[in-house]
Amino acid sequence: MDEETLERIIIKAIKRAASTVPPDVKFALSQALRRETNDIARMQLEAVIENIRLAEEKKLPVCQDTGILYFYVRLPQLADAELIRKTILNATIKATYEIPLRPNAVDSVTGENSGNNVGVNVPWIEFEPSGGDCVEITVFLKGGGADNVSALESLPAGEGLGGIKRSVIKAVMKAGGGPCPPVVLGVGVGGGAYIAMKLAKRALMRPISERNSDPRIAQLENEILEDVNRTGIGPMGLGGETTAIGVNVEVAHRHPASYPLVVLFNCYAVRRVKVKVFPDGKCQFE
Amino acid sequence: MSRVLKTPLVEEDVRSLHVGDVVFLSGVVVTARDAAHRRMIEHIQSGKPIPVNLRGGVIYHCGPIIRRLDDGRMEVISAGPTTSSRMDIFEPFIISRLGARMIIGKGGMGGSTIDAMKRYGAVYAAFPGGAGVLAASKIKRVVGVEWMELGMPEALWILEVESFGPLVIAIDSSGKSLYARGSR
Predict the structure, then answer these.
(1) What pLDDT does B180 receive?
(2) pLDDT, tens digit, 9 for 90 and up, residues A220-271
(3) Domain boundaries, chain A
(4) What fold, for A3-17+62-143+271-285?
(5) What is the pLDDT of residue B1?
(6) Is A145 near chain B, with CB under 8 Å?
(7) Residue A273: in which H helix or E strand, if any?
(8) How far is Cα A141 from Cα A105, in angstroms, rounded to an integer?
(9) Using CB atoms, which residue from A48, A113, A177 is nearest to B131?
(10) What is the pTM of this model?
């Protein structure tokens, strides 16, 4: 596969991520509208659904905050990671002008905007080895409003699952309308703080229509979702019964002394796209 | 109740708005985020003019995506609201000194901004968060841009809007707030 072909595929993936919302999320939004009885909440959900329709029709970014770009690459043994990294950066620069994306990479010291979404350590790229022969790339665009209310907490180890539920609700209450509810929550539990953060991000990658394969964790996901929707925060924080449309939890075994919890928020505009690129340059979007 | 408002806004009209009202706005809005707010205040404090007139005006918390076309015109691609609470440290000053009558954003604002709204006669209107293309479809044209050196998201974009909404009056000039139901 040549660099140019790969670059076009990555640009296409970024464009698809920016201008569409995954089917599981669209379905959840339409279900929420059917249930919601609060007039203002219904108006927000209708606007959100209409906006997604317009964005997909015009192929333009759903939200003006096209976020920080994350790339998760599953790499077969023979693939050239350095070439892929370089191609991702070039594709990001071109995508910024072509789609267009909002330039969101700001120097943390001077405040200067790089203008092309590339800067020190952004886009964020992670590689993971894989079997098979295709390169699998997940593009994830993460907006600032939802990211700003992320929570990391070290719970007393003795509190157990009840402590987790209480802390997630506390984080949701504190976030209020900031993260553009209805939100999707990615919750990471266990390991250490770093592991919990990675797990929470991984949780956000899972479609909200799928529950954790461990039935105990799946039940926890359902219970947290119900609790979150009882807070009354509602769409955009204006009141209502729809504060979250999905809660995904991932866990790791923990240190005996530690019970780390991470809550990552995603706005309703979940922008993730997965594409498989085969050695002959053909690609398949999921 | 749903009604159409035109800029510039007058105090009497703004004071007649109540939380839960739905309005659509026609006229001119000026985008401003963290960096633009900070610079406006620095300019006022050092006696320098600022390049926009906000008397009776509307500030939109928004960092839009704008495309420059080959003929020099500018096209609004996506322009939904940004989180307003970040501007709480600046907004009372802007309302009191520059006379803005409406702040459009998302997520709500805090105590000192609400106090300024009560005192000077201003409201906070929520546009549906993330609805960037919907918002862009209600923006007729880019009238101008100032402080572009702050970067595209942070510049002051002067935008002509038509029936911009739905805007929910989420904080009114009597200090009532819809957000009190949730966390605030």
Answers:
(1) 65
(2) 999 999 999 999 999 999 999 999 999 999 999 999 999 999 999 999 999 9
(3) 3-17+62-143+271-285, 145-266
(4) 60s Ribosomal Protein L30; Chain: A; (3.30.1330)
(5) 54
(6) yes
(7) strand A271-277
(8) 13
(9) A48
(10) 0.94
